[in-house]
Amino acid sequence: MMRILIETIDPKNMRYPTVGDYFPDGDTFKIQVADTGNEDYNFLIALHELIESKLCEHRGIKEEDIMKFDIQYEKEREAGLHEISEEPGFDSKAPYRAEHTFANGIEITMASLLDVDYNHYDWVVMNLDVG
User: Fold this and answer.
1) Do the beta carbons of residue 45 and residue 36 sit within 8 Å?
2) Rounded to an integer, what distance in angstroms lies between the CA atom of residue 126 and that of residue 128?
3) Which end of the chain is more exposed for a tag (fewer CB within 10 A), N or C?
4) What's the rounded Cα separation, in Å, for the pair 19 and 31?
5) Confidence class for position 131, pLDDT limits 50, 70, 90
């Protein structure tokens, strides 16, 4: 039986600069969300990570490859190669681009159903001080 743990943590305690992360931890699959200070925003991030992680697992995309790509992307962002508003998962080189894009669509739909202003939510997420 799979155990899934979703936890909201201090943004500074993320494994690397990201607002959502997932990884196996013993017999538990963990999803960590950088606390935005807004319960609905935290839920949307967690939902995105849950969907993306399942699709990646199903398609054989390894968590290690995703993390390696994301870390390199953030280094490139610090060097000025990517805008603050660009997400690594949308990059054409991202090994999980299709999975990220699908999860983002579900995230946008759920935001609408929760009466969340997606543009404000996206701005908060992209400007959260993580890692």
Assistant:
1) yes
2) 6
3) N
4) 11
5) low
HSE, CB side, 13 Å, CA atoms: give it for residue 68. Answer: 7
DSSP state of 48: H
Tell me if the pTM is above 0.85: yes
| Alpha-carbon span 55 to 104, nearest angstrom | 12
Our count of domains for the chain comes to 1
Cross-strand bridge partners of residue 33: 8, 20
Report which residue type is found at 39.
Answer: E
Between CA 127 and CA 41 the distance in angstroms is 13
Of 7, 89, 27, which is closest to residue 52 (Cα–Cα)? 89
The strand pair at 3-9 and 20-25 is best described as: unpaired
CA 12 to chain centre: 15
At 70, list the tokens: 């994301």
- Does pLDDT of 130 surpass 90? no
